[in-house]
Amino acid sequence: AFDVLVVGGGPAGSAAAIYAARKGIRTGVLAERFGGQVMDTLGIENFISVKATEGPKLAMALEEHVKEYGVDIMNLQRASALVPVDGGIEVKLENGAVVKSKTVVLATGARWRNMNVPGEAEFRTKGVAYCPHCDGPLFRGKRVAVIGGGNSGVEAAIDLAGIVAHVTLLEFDSQLRADAVLQKKLRSLPNVDIIVSAQTTEVTGTDKVNGLKYKDRVSGEEKRIELEGIFVQIGLVPNTDWLKGTVNLSPRGEIEVDAKGQTSLPGVFAAGDCTTVPYKQIIIAMGEGSKASLSAFDHLIRTSAA
Ligand code: FAD
């Protein structure tokens, strides 16, 4: 059995594994795909102290750093259930195997919800973006659209309006769903247009995005907007389906954690994009992973099971 079993091999899971292993305790990492979302990222310019890097390069560095320690890496393995048992926790894998540990750090991350329209996948990183904090500055002086009129869409539009030349916010529903105070701020900005009842139907481009098509859901008319960037803000889905009924989840499916990364289940901690901690970023996930692991160590030295 492990002392700390980390589920997830992204920035949060890697940090958790390194912090646990450095305590000299038996540490395992279980990951469906080591590297996590970072593997899908091209440029990273906000990983503090590294001016610019690329996702796959950072993912490789994460794996190398984890491998510096005696961590048991179980890659390409998907966890399907978490079961509290006497003296610890069992994690069941999709392949039928069971891994036992005294404590667990959950770091299964999240995924951006896609529009699933033609051109979206093709122009990903060529104008189609998901993270305004990450990619906003790449569109300085250009025209962009934000898809989604919830809090994250409206926040993104306000944020981007200060950087880019023009923002068009498109909402599927007949009204925005964001908090009134955010809507008021958005409407006060001179370089923002808001279009409601708009169903995005296609991302167009040549080598890069040059526009989008949408259907006016009232008139049924198809319309086109010329622009250089599209920020999709229709939800971030945490990878926590397999945890339903075991640890407390928020209405959005995020694992509820306290300031130490403790979940509702003793001995089970969580970190990164799969949790209720706000602002989903690499550097935040790493900090949270380290914290959850230190909390797991603290739990071990305080329980008789240690
Ligand atoms: P993830 O990176 O999502 O890792 C989750 C891990 O858990 C993976 O290893 C996954 O395979 C594994 N996993 C999931 N489910 C299971 C399961 N059931 N069993 C076993 N393993 C499982 N952030 C920045 O700070 N700067 C940027 O420039 C930036 N750009 C981005 C660009 C894109 C295109 C995307 C998608 C994200 C970007 N982000 C950026 C956000 C950043 O990647 C995330 O905040 C960060 O990766 C979160 O780390 P994490 O470890 O919590 O989760």
UniProtKB/TrEMBL annotation:
Cofactor(s) recorded in Swiss-Prot or TrEMBL: FAD
Q: Which residues form the FAD/NAD(P)-binding domain?
A: 2-289
What keywords appear on the UniProt entry?
Answer: Disulfide bond, FAD, Flavoprotein, NAD, Oxidoreductase, Redox-active center
Coiled-coil stretches:
none
Q: How does it assemble?
A: Homodimer.
State the family it belongs to: Belongs to the class-II pyridine nucleotide-disulfide oxidoreductase family.
Please report the name of this protein according to its UniProt entry. Alkyl hydroperoxide reductase subunit F
Q: Which organism is it from?
A: Uliginosibacterium paludis
